[in-house]
């Protein structure tokens, strides 16, 4: 029997080895087919006229933004990105770099060929009021040059309409609608599900309002969380209404927050959502698609074949104004910009994510570059690993010790760990709508011993010490729970000391505005958590002033692609443009709630703090 078992295992091994070799051969064969097909397209594309984008003397720039506006795109393998686009894979929302949109609009304002901007926003998934306002400011600059901005749409969601409100005219399809439904915050709660699965959940937290772990310990939102969330959502909605009302000449009662008000006006419009939008002055005119083309052609003229008005898409215009190769940085003083976007995780992460080590390395590059005189840390993050946050924050201390001022510039969200990494900057700038604060920490640990026992699996053993065995099959003893709770409290005290020291507060004052509570940017200014309200340009100007420099350039310091990756990105990007403009489809395939739950599960799976302690705000994106 003993002699036969190795032979048996060897036979099984041979079967699986053969199976794997077959799968591997098939995989390589298919990849080679795809590769040589792409190579053939590249060769053909390389022989084409590179200046394929033609702009008529009078033309409209169609700002057809598709996806989510971000401060920094997530790093994607160039081949994967090309294949996903070529095969029409729209399983995740596309990302639009805010800087690209601003650059396109800046150039269009000065381009005599561009006589109008058409806001075609039906595939815009959002990105935060501060980013939409930055784009809106560029639209205002465009209008000041005597050019028209016209918004067209079959419908407008809340984020789409905020941007559309900057237009001279807002046009709507006769069967369309405008959805100004305010802001809300609803979460999924897993307590009952965990109990049914017999999962033992151990939670360690500090802060009355630190609600990130509530989904694992409750089946509903706590009153404290409801109070905090209602307060910042109300303030965010107030900012939204003020902006839209001032641009559209509306009053507060035009937003119909009470269903009774809406029902009265809806009945008066004969239950027609499009007519209701006109009556409420949300849109200027109801027009069909053919009428839109006619209206725009009156401004910029028809194409030679009379099939469309003269126009150029956002992506086409971007290819003209943004060079494929980055030019070498000129000599002279610089203000460096480091973007920290996404959940903060331990270790090295790709662009579009925050790794404690990788982001600290970017800051270190700025510190060791003699031409860099100041640094702006642009933050768009709900937080994450407390350990990684401290690694990043320490690098800011080193920058300041090197006499290089650091200004933190908060984008849509800079909460919890996102505030941790900002706290020791010389100045903190936020947008009025920035979601910040959430100064608190928590720990989460789960064991499966009851789940395993339920199906007949038991765990037992011995140890040389009384230290806890951190094994998901072994329950956590009371003493271990107490140690982890005290450790969590200690991290919270460290967080408070950082805030107290750098924000000129006593510990009691810091604790009062902490407790895990979320604040909006305008509230954070009143509480002393930020120094000024403004955008990225304001933060850059302030950093230069702190450094005592007037003549300077800005330099974005980011994770760089390898030469091979850069070459593939440029080649495949050109081929993608040459083949066709990508089909714009809704990025949402799954039902929103299912997609949201899967996203939450994926984010939790990425948590990797070495101490298991997190400073994260899970509800900071309404």
Question: What order do the helices and strands come in, and which of them pair?
Answer:
Blueprint: H1 4-46, E1 59-63, E2 67-70, H2 78-86, E3 95-97, H3 98-110, E4 114-120, E5 124-126, H4 129-144, E6 148-153, H5 158-164, E7 169-172, H6 191-196, E8 200-206, H7 214-217, H8 223-248, H9 259-268, H10 273-279, E9 285-286, H11 289-300, E10 311-313, H12 314-321, E11 334-341, E12 344-345, E13 354-355, H13 356-368, E14 372-381, E15 383-385, H14 386-401, E16 406-415, H15 417-420, E17 427-430, E18 435-437, E19 441-447, H16 449-454, H17 478-502, H18 507-513, E20 518-520, H19 521-527, E21 532-533, H20 536-547, E22 553-556, H21 563-579, H22 592-606, E23 613-616
Parallel strand pairs: 1-4, 1-10, 2-3, 2-5, 4-6, 6-7, 7-9, 11-14, 11-22, 12-13, 14-16, 16-17, 16-18, 17-21
Antiparallel strand pairs: 8-19, 15-23, 18-20, 19-23
Helix pairs in contact: 1-21, 2-21, 3-4, 3-12, 13-14, 17-18
């Amino acid at each position: 029997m003993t002699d036969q078992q190795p032979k048996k295992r060897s036979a099984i091994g041979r079967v699986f080895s053969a199976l794997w070799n077959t799968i591997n051969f098939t995989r390589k064969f298919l990849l080679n087919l795809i590769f040589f097909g792409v190579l053939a397209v590249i060769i053909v594309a390389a022989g084409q006229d590179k200046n394929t984008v033609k702009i008529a003397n009078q033309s409209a720039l169609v700002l057809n933004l598709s996806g989510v506006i971000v401060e920094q795109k997530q790093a994607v393998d160039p081949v994967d990105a090309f294949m996903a686009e070529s095969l029409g894979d729209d399983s995740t929302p596309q990302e639009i770099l805010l800087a690209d949109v601003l650059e396109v609009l800046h150039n269009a304002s000065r381009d005599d060929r561009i006589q109008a901007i058409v806001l075609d926003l039906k595939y815009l998934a959002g990105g935060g009021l501060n980013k939409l306002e930055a784009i809106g400011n560029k639209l205002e600059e465009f209008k000041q040059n005597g050019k028209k901005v016209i918004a067209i749409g079959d419908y407008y969601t809340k984020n789409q309409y905020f941007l559309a409100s900057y237009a001279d005219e807002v046009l709507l399809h006769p069967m369309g609608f405008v959805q100004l439904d305010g802001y809300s915050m609803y979460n999924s709660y897993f307590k009952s599900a965990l109990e049914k699965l017999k999962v033992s959940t151990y939670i360690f937290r500090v802060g009355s309002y630190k609600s990130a772990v509530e989904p694992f310990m409750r089946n509903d939102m706590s009153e404290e969380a409801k109070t905090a969330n209602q307060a910042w959502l109300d303030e965010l909605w107030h900012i939204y209404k003020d902006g839209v009302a001032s641009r559209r000449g509306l009053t507060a009662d035009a937003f119909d927050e009470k269903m009774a008000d809406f029902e009265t006006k809806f009945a008066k419009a004969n239950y027609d959502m499009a007519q209701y939008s006109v009556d409420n002055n949300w849109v200027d005119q109801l027009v069909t698609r053919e009428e839109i083309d006619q209206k725009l052609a009156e401004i910029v003229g028809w194409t030679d074949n009379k099939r469309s008005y003269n126009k150029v898409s956002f992506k086409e215009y971007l290819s003209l104004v943004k060079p494929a190769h980055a030019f070498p940085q000129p000599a002279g003083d610089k203000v460096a910009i480091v973007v920290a976007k996404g959940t903060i995780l331990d270790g090295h992460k790709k662009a579009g994510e925050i790794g404690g080590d990788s982001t600290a390395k970017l800051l270190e590059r700025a510190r060791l570059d003699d031409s860099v005189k100041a640094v702006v840390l642009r933050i768009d993050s709900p937080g994450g690993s407390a350990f990684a946050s401290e690694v990043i924050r320490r690098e800011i201390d080193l920058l300041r010790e090197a006499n290089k001022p650091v200004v933190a510039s908060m984008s849509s969200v800079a909460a919890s760990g996102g505030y941790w990494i900002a706290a020791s900057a010389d100045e903190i700038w936020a947008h009025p709508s920035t979601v910040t604060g959430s100064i608190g920490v928590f720990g989460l640990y789960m064991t499966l011993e009851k789940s395993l026992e339920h199906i007949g699996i038991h765990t037992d053993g011995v140890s040389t010490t009384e230290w806890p065995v951190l094994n998901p099959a072994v329950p956590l003893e009371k003493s271990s729970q107490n140690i982890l709770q005290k450790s969590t409290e200690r991290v919270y005290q460290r967080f408070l000391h950082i805030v107290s020291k750098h924000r000129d507060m006593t510990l009691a004052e810091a604790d009062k505005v902490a407790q895990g509570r979320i604040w909006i940017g305008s509230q954070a200014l009143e509480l002393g958590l930020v120094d000024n309200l403004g955008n990225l340009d304001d933060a850059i100007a302030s950093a230069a002033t702190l450094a005592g420099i007037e003549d300077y350039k800005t330099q974005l310091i980011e994770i760089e692609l390898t030469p091979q990756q850069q070459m593939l990105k440029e080649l495949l990007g050109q081929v993608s443009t040459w083949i066709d403009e990508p089909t714009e489809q809704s990025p949402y395939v799954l039902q929103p709630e299912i997609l949201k739950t899967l996203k939450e599960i994926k984010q939790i799976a990425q948590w990797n703090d070495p101490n298991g302690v997190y400073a994260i705000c899970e509800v900071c994106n309404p």
